[in-house]
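[Q] Does anyone have a clean structure-token version of this?
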Amino acid sequence: MYDVWMLTDGESRPVANSFLRLLGGTMDKLIRQIVLVVATSAVMPLGTNYAAAQQKVLKFVPQADLRILDPITTTAYITRNHGYMVYDTLFAMNDKFEVKPQMVERFELSKDKLTYTFTLRAGLKFHDGVPVHSADCIASIQRWAKRDTLGQKLAEVTESWTAIDDKTFRLKLKKPFPPTLDALGKPSVNIPFIMPERIAKTDAFKNIEDPVGSGPFKFVKEEWQPGHKAVYVKNTDYVPRAEPPSWASGGKVVKVNRIEWIYIPDSGTAAAALNAGEVDWWERPLPDLIPMLARNKEIKVTIPDPLGSVGLLRFNFLQPPFNNEKMRQALLYALDQSDYVLAITGDPKGGHPCYSYFTCDTPLSSEVGAEPLKGKRNFEKAKQLIRESGYKGEKIVIIDATDLYTIHAQSLLTLDLLKKLGLNVELQANDWGTLLTRRTSKEPVEKGGWSIFHTTMVGADMVSPGVNPWVRGNGEKAMPGWPTDPKTEEARETWFNASDTATSKAATEAEQRRAFEFVPYIPTGQFAIPVAYRSNISGVISAPAILMWNVEKR
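[A] Here you go.
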């Protein structure tokens, strides 16, 4: 028997058989086909997938194009957000900065604080239907620990990982490491997402190509169109925790069937699409467009991340001229954070200077050593340092991402600043995906390399020496820029060994004092980044990352 389909309130449904009885109750195949077409053609185009029409589809405009699927090899937030869709974690942090079990059902810590025993929750399965086992978790953590700044430290103090059975595994430490659960429950980059062992065995410096996880959404790789669209569907096999969601912890209940990430690099086009209801959610609206969006009663503009974000200017330590410390120090005396905050937010109240290498308004923030950046701008001092560095007019290349206003605004200011200092500088435009690839190049600028790039980090990624990846001085293992500084690493080690709050604070200040001498990067300010979404969207979680479970579309 043929079903007749009609639309009601945006959803398709079969019309009751009584509708057919009104047409006489007996129709041959041809008549039934005609009724089907007549009943639906006015409300659905021919060729419509009626099952898909019944689904709730959320259309999201991300901050950048999704180019890299591996959340371990990059710190790009677009890939981190993708990771939260596809993967799950052993532990997760809530909005009170408490680390809670996520994939783990229970754990035990031995009295000597050297042995953790973890037991997984029941019902965990990867998207290919294979159960999650202890071996998957161990391989995933070991791969993550080769790239993440806190994971590297955990690896240093790890004696062994052992699978006891399919659901239970053990971590044996060489010495007590209090941040162990903080590491396994990191809320932002790099996050120790759990992958199948066969995938987690991939070299940590090579991107994975098979995005199979056990998280609340499945990535539809055959519909992935880099430069345009990424598609996720609800993982119907996912078993959420019973607790309410809080940041990345708690129950990950998916309330839509399908999510489409639609990359729209032109902000005007994205704004028009949101205004018209063609998309539901825009991750990073341009500040100039926010007043217009806020006037639309069908749109909500909110600040989702309570800590905000921190801007930074990163140098290439392998190539001249910023392999010279005095060149890096020179910019400290010339850069004005107030200019950068205003350029990024478009509103003096949208942020504030932050003369700290660790997120302002958090316990370890400090202005120790910050006088060169905080004091009155001194171009003469900057030019003196440039002369003392022996700068000989080498070309400086700033690689820019024109599709991310937070990056582009900073890049333009730095271009102008370097020109005022009399430096030979060139701005090279890219999109964010291309910049992420280019910043991994260690070649000189004549061969496609770079001298400076800008990025932003959520405040949660910069709160301490243990998690801030950009302040490290561990050379080839460091973030792009690859600074080598044993004094920085020594200060970081002191922080890890701190036994109380006062010692921890002193160690952090020692590392910051060294940072303002060595200058691994320059903080450019702290600011809030708003999001905008349609008023029929609810359940958006306030967190340092974009999290799409709990989100409902009416």
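[Q] Thanks! Anything notable?
[A] Residues 1-53 have pLDDT under 50 and may be disordered.
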